[in-house]
Amino acid sequence: MTDTNHATELDDELLSIDEVAALLRAPVATLRYWRYLGTGPRSFRVGRAVRYWRGDVLAWLHEQTIHSGTHTA
């Protein structure tokens, strides 16, 4: 099975949890809670650090927009 949300582009940017929090305008604690629940953007560990692919974060954000019921043209 292939993961269609997996960022495979060589030019995709690796983001820290602080950078994702700034991008989403959400507290780092919220991202940690979402990680715990498994509901936030896809993340992974590199050593002890949590990392996100920018493409995955933007795709997750787009999904939230679609499923929120407030999508406007």
Question: Which descriptors apply to this entry?
Answer:
3 helices; alpha+beta; 3 strands; 3-stranded antiparallel β-sheet; 73 residues
Walk me through this protein's architecture.
The chain has 73 residues and is of the alpha+beta class. The chain has one domain (14-67). 44% of the residues lie in helices and 15% in strands. Strands 1-3-2 form a three-stranded antiparallel sheet. α1 packs across α2 (28-37). The protein is globular and about 40 Å long. It starts with 13 loop residues before the first strand and ends in a 6-residue tail after the last helix. The relative contact order is 0.20.
Q: What's the layout of helices and strands?
A:
Blueprint: E1 14-16, H1 17-24, H2 28-37, E2 44-46, E3 49-53, H3 54-67
Antiparallel strand pairs: 1-3, 2-3
Helix pairs in contact: 1-2
